[in-house]
Amino acid sequence: FTVFVIKPSIELLEFMGVVRENGNELPPVHTPLSYDYVLVAKTIDDQERTAFKKQTEYIDELKKKNFKVTKIIDDDLIFYGIQAPKEIFEKYRYLLKVSDACNWSSDQNIVPLKGLRDLMKMKVFEARNYFGEKVALYYLWLGWYTYLLIAPALIGIVVFLYGLSFFSTSPLIKEVCEADTVMCPLCDKGCKVWRLSDTCSYAKVSLLFDNNGTVLFAMFMAVWATLFLEFWKRHRASYVCEWKVSDWSEEEEELILEIVNNAHCEPKEFRHSYLRSTLVLICVTILVIIGLTHALVVFRVIAAGFLAKESWEFLSNHSNTGAMMLGAVMHYLIITVMTRVNRIVAMKLCGIEKTRSFAATEKSFTVKMFTFQFFTYFSSLFYVAFFLGRINGHPGDYVRIAGKWRLEECHPSGCLTDLFIQMTIIMVLKQTISNVFEFTGPWFCRFLKRRRAQKLQRKCAHCYLKDDSELKNGSELCENCKLRDWHNNYRLNDVDSFSLFNEFLEMVIQFSFTTIFVAAFPLAPLLALINNVIEIRLDAIKMVTLERRMVPKKTNDIGVWMDILEAVGVLAVIANGLVIGVSSDFIPRLVYRYRYGPCANGTATDIDCMVGYINNTLSIAQMNGKNNTFPSTQMITSTGLNVTYCSYKDYRSSEDYSLTPQFWLILAVRFAFVILFEHVLVICKFIAAWFVPSAPMQVKNDRLFDKLKRLKEELR
């Protein structure tokens, strides 16, 4: 069977009296439906087939439980309207009342729907009344997240403009653009020495995102992530208290439903296997991390080698940048494929675990799927941020893959631009293409189904002319009009229990992009804000007009997603500390300014303290009789001049390539900064979490008086 909940059409909503007419709101009346769900099956002529027998047995079992079944046959489809008896709802409400965790007040203020137009704007109360608390909390969370992104987006723009202001005054850019330094070849074959001044534009882009402003912005974003979660708890508490679901437990509700269905049922026991969990964690997660990272690294290295051999001089000179951009596109394609693979693997692992309830299965699936997706998205970013240019060796002893392909190097201006370009391509492609397919896919499917389906007549005049007195007595649509509405719902795109999961996963991955590597991409919150403003409206249109109605479910929180968001917040502190301390040139510049630069002795007053920094970060490889590290064909400049030495980014001796004391000093300062940065921000996060109560005092008092009132009523 295909199972769905009926989604009212405009005519049906008018018939129910819940939309506006001539500006005046019609009074709510009895819903003209004699069914809670609709089952749809293909007609089967052979009554001996197993599928026909199963369908018949299922319908007979429903009838034995006193379910009302309305059967309508239409060509090759059979529709069954299913309505449960009142006794089931009475048992359900009573068990909720005596439950420990689901004691729920029925005195809730249900606001009637005001039509599809208001519903498509996804006001929280309308969404809750139509889709249930679970969907309403998603839109509540997404709206709150989008609202709080305004401040980071504005500050990110300020940081970007701060970097832009240094274009004409920075001595670092001037030193690169006016340098006559000859740099060592970037690959073994096809590459020649090149001049540092050829990468003037690259140096300017680097300074946009690798400046003192990004350090402060990263600290702000770490605290912002904590404040966002704490204020979300308060925001959520206000709504769930008003909806009377503060103590709701999904697992206990499932247990109640099992008892309602079968009073003699046996509960499934809790089980946990440490061995199985460990094997899943080690085998799958590590395979995903190592496999994807290695694949992308190999692709980038091979692509850089091929581009360097191109006859087109522009490609040859920018082979590393080209390989990086191709790697980012390749990474996006891998993400698209692995999303499907990860879903299948996560579902299989959940099946092996044999969880006790659907709520437990949903939680387990969410954790596994997010873990797989997180490493699928961020594997190459971690490589670029923390390994690119740090494990490639030095002239005469380069690290190679399979002894053939040389690993990439960082630009003398730093590696942060590589991380920025990688993030920009993945984030823009993901948000743009995902939104396009997310909306056009369901729309196109519905269009094809409408083209294939026969035209159904409009609602008959008899159903339009029913008066309010007939409606209040339980009168309903005729069979033809019912079939018309059922067909309209059947042609919509299918939804399942994990449909809302997809929306949450997309937004939490975006939240990870916005916080974890924000030091390399201050404009990430701005892109997220623009995307979310569009996303809310597209999701509302899709859910209301293009997809079947989700089964309404009660809940009081966004579930395990809250734990994931808090874990991402902690990881953001660690990652941003490492990006600033290890990936950026913030620490080397700091050490140069106060230890090795012209201002180190405190006497220079008329010179910029960063003059000579780029030259200080370069080491020299001599081409003498002992150290012919590059063939003579690679030591020819673009002007045809033969050179006997070249420079490369590192702190090494020109004689034996040993690391200099400056390298060890910078390394020590890097570690000290990372430890200090993380400890300070973790303390700030704890203070922020302690300072902001998880629920407003008014909400706590309302819950207190509500519980006192309920206990007094029970005592009476």
Compose a concise summary of this entry.
Its main location: membrane. The protein is 60% helix and 7% strand.
Task: Please tell me about this protein's structure.
The protein is α+β, with helices and mostly antiparallel strands and 716 residues long. The chain is built from 26 helices and 14 strands. A 4-stranded antiparallel β-sheet has the order 1-4-6-5, with helices on both faces. Helix 6 (133-148) packs antiparallel against helix 21 (524-546). The chain is elongated and about 95 Å long.
Strand and helix layout:
Elements: E1 2-4, H1 10-16, E2 20-21, E3 24-25, E4 37-42, H2 50-64, E5 68-74, E6 77-83, H3 86-98, H4 115-120, H5 124-131, H6 133-148, H7 150-164, H8 171-177, E7 182-183, E8 194-195, H9 200-209, H10 212-242, H11 250-261, H12 274-308, H13 313-317, H14 319-353, H15 358-386, E9 393-394, E10 397-398, E11 400-401, E12 405-406, H16 416-452, H17 461-464, H18 468-472, H19 479-490, H20 499-516, H21 524-546, H22 561-583, H23 586-596, H24 613-616, E13 618-622, E14 645-649, H25 661-691, H26 697-715
Helix pairs in contact: 3-11, 5-6, 6-10, 6-21, 7-10, 7-21, 8-9, 10-22, 10-25, 12-14, 12-15, 14-15, 14-16, 15-16, 15-20, 15-22, 16-21, 20-21, 20-22, 22-25
